[in-house]
Amino acid sequence: MRQMPRHPFDADKLHEECGVFGVIGVAEAANFVALGMHALQHRGQEAGGIVSYDPETGFNSARRFGYVRDNFTKASLMETLPGELAIGHVRYSTAGSKGATALRDVQPFFGEFSMGGCAIAHNGNLTNATSLRRELIERGSIFQSSSDSECIIHLMARSIQRTLSERIKDALRRVEGAFSIVAMTRTKLIGVRDALGVRPLVLGRIGEEGYVLSSETCGLDIIGAEFLREIEPGEMVVISKGKIENSRPFGPSTGRFCIFEHVYFSRPDSIIGGRSVYETRRQIGVELAREAPVDADLVCPVPDSGTPAAIGFAHESGIPYGMGIIRNQYMGRTFIEPTESIRNMGVRLKLNVNRALIKGKRVILVDDSVVRGTTSRKIKDMIIDAGAAEVHFRIASPPTAWPCFYGVDTPERAKLLAANMSEEEMRDWIGVDSLRFVSLDGLYRAVGAVEGRNKAQPQFCDACFTGQYPVAPSDQIEAGFQMRAAE
Question: Can you list the positions of beta strands (E) in 330-377?
Fold first, then answer.
């Protein structure tokens, strides 16, 4: 679900649900959190929130719709968030209500318990939230939001554990799905990843006694924090000022990190699993050039997410690279089209063809994915209108044929082009001279799995490509979703 109007170009992309960030042990921690949220803005543009704690004023919070830069850079607001401990959240909703009344869905969520207050920010999606919510309401819980994340607060309230960190463990043992959580009490900053580590979370150090938790390493970079390590799948860290304790609340586990983080979600300047996201995307382009070569005159990225793969494709194939499509950097994601004539301009509001470069050329367009395919058709039309002799699409991910239930905004399966058409049928529908996707093994090789995908025990979560869900989406199954039959 969406809370703010989107441009058609963005509607045909997959979107992460959110980003989380937390800081402890530095003065004016909320200001550092705001900077971290700004670095993570690509993970959620609809809304943001910060909760801080100060011994004199207690817990303080601010939640706003829109960009971080438009809200959390105002001194008048940031002065209301004092303290050396704060957490923040940027949101792109996949669950929850929409519209003007949905500020209640903006995280972090806060709960007051007998042993003190606790705020939680959640990246991911709980696949049993509907059944949990139903159970909690029947037992007397009163929900204030429509977010799945609020279930965690209510589960904590019903726990009999004596400390807030133990109540968080207790609550998270009841939930299913994907979660990377940053939480805070009056004295502690807490980070947890689910047993499979589907969503990312990293740990950094700032100053002499300060620590940082962030969805990505780019959040550490913006505040000058030192990257220490990733929080491991199934790990929980409890950070006091200058001290870290870790535990394994969910027992031994094998990670299944979301492979689409490598393809699209994470910023290219972030580091995942010790690998540069930019270099991984460039290597995907190399694999594409090896798997799906084509005679052409020019390799062009569909900006901006297709750029690293296009560079890799051009280098491997020897075909010149060129910026055949220019993105309007000042076109906001939430641009409201005032008239029907402007609305009909569609993709042209964001992308413009470099006609002098394209005319008469056989063009290879490199993009990160094909979801509904509507944007691909429009971009193809623009390239043909500019005088291209041929148009070939090369896609830096396998066909997206299954919805994600772990924190990614995916259309229902009936609206996914690859769920309803073969590759050749997609080529005809988009109307290009050729269409090829990187193979699943090629994608795995690009992210460092030299032997490709381990079919018996896949190294990543790749359910959006394979339909093989590492955690059964129980709420969706109850609602009638048909999972792919086991091979």
Answer: 351-353, 362-367
